[in-house]
Write a structure and sequence with these properties.
12% of the residues lie in helices and 35% in strands. It is mainly beta. The strands form three sheets. It has a four-stranded mixed beta sheet. The chain has a three-stranded antiparallel beta sheet with strand order 1-2-5, with no helix packed on it. Strands 6-7-8 form a three-stranded antiparallel beta sheet, with helices on one face. Strand 6 and strand 7 form a beta hairpin.
């Protein structure tokens, strides 16, 4: 019996100038608390999904993708941060520490159910903002008991 391929995962930047499909299940996903990811995401952390580089196919907008060599990283190893030059949305991250792997920001994926999965790990927790765990605690404390 032949195994069926996983359904393609689609994604895009905010303005849809860059669109892509991914022909594999994600290999990993994590939260990153490093200062660079905070800056590029405009948030307290960045949620990324890892895929094999060859599984990602740009369907539109390859000419719109620009890459910034982020040399101010927590590890000292540069990151290649790709983004849409029209809207500025991050669309991919690559590192020499994991050749052959591309990390896609969770917000760029169209399937929002993937965002409901608990990340496998957190990177650079020394830079995590102190209130992160407290948000869930407050939400749970505010619920009425049945």
């Amino acid at each position: 019996m032949a195994s069926s391929a996983p359904p393609a995962i689609s994604g895009s930047c905010l303005c849809k100038a860059v669109e892509f499909t991914i022909e594999e299940e994600p290999a990993a996903h994590y939260l990153c608390h490093c200062p660079s990811c905070k800056k590029v995401s405009g948030s307290a952390f960045m949620h990324n999904w890892g895929f094999a580089k060859e599984a990602i196919k740009y369907t539109t907008g390859t000419e719109t993708v620009r890459t910034f060599a982020d040399r101010n990283t927590h590890t000292g190893t540069p990151l290649e941060r790709s983004f849409c030059r029209v809207c500025g949305s991050p669309v991919a991250i690559q590192t020499a520490l994991q050749p052959g792997r591309v990390f896609i920001p969770a917000g760029a994926l169209d399937d929002t159910s993937l965002q409901d999965q608990v990340p496998l790990s957190e990177n650079f927790v020394d830079a995590r903002v102190a209130w992160i765990g407290k948000v869930a605690e407050k939400r749970m404390a505010g619920r009425k008991k049945a």
